[in-house]
Sequence to fold (952 residues):
Amino acid sequence: MGQRTQLILLLLLFIPYFVMESTASDDYNGLLSVKDELMNTPPNWVRPDPCGSKWDGIVCNNSRVTSLQLQSMNLSGRLSREIESLSELQILDLSYNKYLTGPLPPSIGSLKKLVTLNLIGCGFSGSIPDTIGNLQQLTTLSLTNNSFSGPIPASIGILSNLYWLDLAVNQLNGPIPVSPGLDNLLHAKHFHLESNKFSGEIPPQLFSSNMILLHLILNGNNLSGSIPETIGSVQTLEVIRFDRNSLSGTLPSNLSNLVYLNELYLSNNKFTGSIPNLTGLSLTYVDMSNNSFTVSDMPPWFSTLQSLATLVMENTQLQGPVPSSIFSLPNLQTVTLRNNNLSGTLDIGTSYSSKLQLVDLQNNSIVHEVYSAGGYNKNLILVHNPICNPPDATKSYCAVSQSNTPPYSTPSNHSCPPAQCTSDQISSPNCQCAYAYSGTLVFRAPNFLDLGISSYYLELQSTLMQRFKDCSLPVDSVSLRNPIKDSSTMNLNLSLDVFPSGQDHFNRTEILNIGSLFSSHTFTPPTGFGSYYFLANPYGYYAGISTESKKSLSIGVIIGAVAGFTILLLLLVLAGVYVYALRQKRRAESASGQLNPFAHWDPNNGSGGIPQLKGARSFSFEELKKYTNKFSEANSIGSGGYGKVYRGILPAGQLIAIKRAHTESMQGGVEFKTEIELLSRVHHKNLVSLVGFCFDQGEQMLVYEYVPNGTLMDGLSGKSGIRLDWIRRLKVALGAARGLAYLHELANPPIIHRDIKSTNILLDERLNAKVADFGLSKLMGDAESGHVTTQVKGTMGYLDPEYYTTQQLTEKSDVYGFGVVLLELITARMPIERGKYIVMVVQTAMDRTKVLYNLHEILDPAIGLQTSLKGLEKFVDLAMRCVEESGANRPTMGMVVKEIENIMELAGLNPNAESATTSESYDINKENSHHPYSNEGFEYSGVYPTSKIEPQ
Fold:
């Protein structure tokens, strides 16, 4: 037995003694089990005493663990069932670790003293265990933004102390449970259940006069039936959101009993009958749009709502004149009454509210000139009214103003120039480069619709800073930017950056404290923003830092075990010196390999010279073997002609996709090297990012970012289970076009992809398009003639005929392939199907004199033929210009981007708005999903080859 081994065994004898002194053995063993199931736990979790050594995120009382909080630690893995060992635990908060996956173990129900359970913004799935009802002391349950499915367990109704229930943005289904169920939660003030799949009627017994509920948020579900009259008995209600369901019937007349009601969202349902009189309520936001109310004049009681800031009544069968008195409400900011039959003369009057920013009366029957001695000069829109027929350019209200400028971003301190920061840092408002703690604030019910009112954000910024100061957090400044009203949820999404003071990064304790401030809702936003939740991004500074192997004894363990024992101090130091020297030697060897990752790259094996990389990392075979659990079948997510694809997790928690080439299909090296070089030099949100590669032990592997929602081909064919309507297809087209335009016009030197097709366009978690597979790409840096003469390569059906006949490759060859993709987007047909070429099929069928160019028979029914397809004709025109025989007649990709943006604006969309989150905007049938990296070709009924062609 070696001397080092004897020392370690000797020291191990002392470890249990010290652990027992400070941390109870059950808690210690439970934490070790939790740690074993996780990756990227805090570095000081190698110390032997969680309580005495103060593990990050651990709070103890009398040797027992009472709090486990690890917000924003970039954790990945699963929550161990041994969590039940922490029987004194009162707070469990693992929020903002999106790679923390798997089910919530039923053993969670053994934590009988748990008061707070927060798992916001993680990746948990499966059902909520019924054992949750055992947590009798629970006051806060926040499972927001995960992938939980199945029904709400009725046992939640046993939690009589529950104050905050937030299950929003999951995939929960079934009815709302009552008797027992939510009706028993008489101390709850918040029911946040939006953006799930709940169905059935809202049960009348859900409501009673014994409740003290403030927020009832159920929007974005599949609820049906009428709103029960019993809702009028919950007189504490301040916010009701029933929008975007399938509710019907008449509205309860006793809504007028809700004297504290501030915000009422009822849009996008099937309500009928008359609009109830809500005179005297303190409403600030009313939206009843897109219902089937009885045709009526504007309710006169609108003018009694003295607190009203926003009134939205689109498509509600209103008629008659608009009463001028409504515009004099003192707090009024926005009036949107589009798509009604309002008529007569519009009189905004002379005493309209000084806060009034928008009056939108598009598509009504206003016939007379607006008269106002005060001269209302804000945003008035009367497009598609008789008053604007014929169009009159001198009347500003006969046009819809468009603005591509973000409505707000925290200004920099004008006394200092913005700092020039590295790619990992950003400049603060005080011009200091730092690693910001960032994320998105999602406000569920703001009472304003106009996102350009800077005073709101300045007040929010000030309130945040004051809260950080009150909590003694070292925050230098905060930045708010890019406010977006999510069209699918009507939530306000606002980006937040928090900057450290006195250093360029936060330490882990500070990150935990900031994360806790948001996850526990101890920060209260100013009046007007309403309820919120926060989704933090992984903290960049610690993204690459991971703990040592769980099976090795670190120097930290040795030091901690003998702390206080001077008799062993000398032995410890000697051991430390030995281990340190050994590690330094290994690190030096590893560093040498990293500095020269191509030591074994053989330029004579057909792979060309050593790749010139910009940011991509070289992985060893052993590293990727570890990250994929020895390339286990459980981590196999696809296969194709190239080889197999595996899912892996880096120590920092980042999911990756690893393309491992078959021995017989290793690209000979040229395409392999090309893809490495090209992907390492291009960085754009619509291009798949290369994380690294492996050229070790005879292997060729490419390591990409993980793109979860398959290829565009899979989305159109139904394999991935994603529903792509017209709006989403426009967004996909725009994203892919922007990626290609970047390659052609902004990359230096320009790059031609050479294999644009729907299987090389991937869809991320928000259905953003990402162009992939650069194995056939060509640089244009040496092409003075504007083309590259090369052997023809590509995929049949997408191949530029001009390139095929001349062997002269240009950017317009990519434009041709993209035009075919545009035709796929509207037809969901393969480029060549049963011997018919999609370009010829569309050319033959289209008739520009008819609606939708007479393409009804070949349009994909899933595109939404029963809804408006605004801009489709222009979309078809663009596609046909892209597939012109002559490249000179095709537009550039930059022109294509601009035209798609114009089409989106025509369809009433903001081309710069972010896509909605997956759980809110589409359904995925995971059993039928087909992973994007499989690279399997299409089936062309045996007529054409399915793979890339390489004519000799």
Observations:
- Residues 562-595 form one domain.
- DSSP finds 17 helices and 51 strands in the chain.
- The radius of gyration is 31 Å.
